[in-house]
Write a structure and sequence with these properties.
The protein is of the alpha+beta class. The protein has 5 helices and 8 strands; from the N terminus they run ααββββαββααββ. The protein has a domain of 141 residues. It has a 4-stranded antiparallel beta sheet with strand order 1-2-3-4. A hairpin with a 7-residue loop joins strand 2 and strand 3. The longest helix has 43 residues. It is elongated.
């Protein structure tokens, strides 16, 4: 009687073990089936056209480029303002000296070229500036004054830099002033501006003239739609 109970207990244990093994196999089989079904659906799912995917990647690359350009410009401007004026040295072509009363302002000497008696004349002038754009704006303002062609309403409104090109945005009175003096004096004045930029603010070698933030030549005896530079 005792042996019979042991056999029944053993048989129940074996059946329970087999049931657990079968259940585990069924779960694995069902899981494999779901994985196969998912892979099949992924294969059947239509993919975006190649051109659309290429355009999407180009968009991502352009976004990264723009973000990098903006952040780099911000950092360069920050370094320009904070680190450029420490100690004595030279400011891109001009002799400079730090002013002790204002640590962020420096005194620079530049060579200016302006028309006089039918030719270009050089004159050394001192300019107090903070960043390079201020140097350029102050220098061009002095050229306007030295040339004797322009009234006080001809002013430099904005200055922009782009590698070797500087954009000078002048007031609307610049066009009629050029028209009043004629083609040759206007050409001499523009040549003097380009040479002043090249000699004092490397790597700038080209100048683009804007009038009221627009590219125009209306009413001017010279072509202001072109990028001006000296012959190499």
């Amino acid at each position: 009687m005792r042996h019979k109970k042991d056999r029944n207990y053993t048989g129940d244990f074996e059946r329970d073990f087999e049931d657990r093994v079968d259940a585990k196999r069924r779960r694995l089989s069902q899981g494999q089936g779901r994985s196969d079904s998912r892979r099949e659906r992924d294969k059947q799912r239509p993919k975006a056209p190649l051109l659309l995917r290429v355009l999407a990647w180009c968009g991502v690359v352009m976004l990264c480029f723009v973000l990098g350009y903006v952040s780099t410009s911000y950092m360069l401007d920050f370094l320009d303002r904070r680190l450029l004026y420490k100690g004595q040295g030279s400011e891109q072509g001009g002799e400079t000296a730090l002013l002790p009363s204002e640590p962020n302002v420096q005194k620079a000497e530049f060579s200016l070229y302006y028309p006089k008696d039918g030719t270009l004349t050089e004159e050394r002038v001192e300019v107090m500036v903070r960043i390079q754009e201020d140097s350029i704006q102050e220098t061009v303002s002095k050229l306007l004054s030295l040339s004797g062609f322009f009234a006080r309403d001809v002013t430099v409104k904005h200055v922009f830099r782009n590698v070797d090109t500087v954009y000078l945005d002048l007031s609307g009175a610049f066009l009629p002033a050029l028209n009043a003096v004629g083609a040759r004096p206007s050409t001499l004045f523009i040549t003097g501006v380009v040479r002043t930029m090249r000699d004092n603010f490397p790597p700038i070698t080209k100048v683009r003239f804007l009038v009221d933030s627009k590219v125009t030549s209306t009413g001017a005896p010279v072509d202001l739609t072109a990028v001006w530079q000296l012959p190499k």
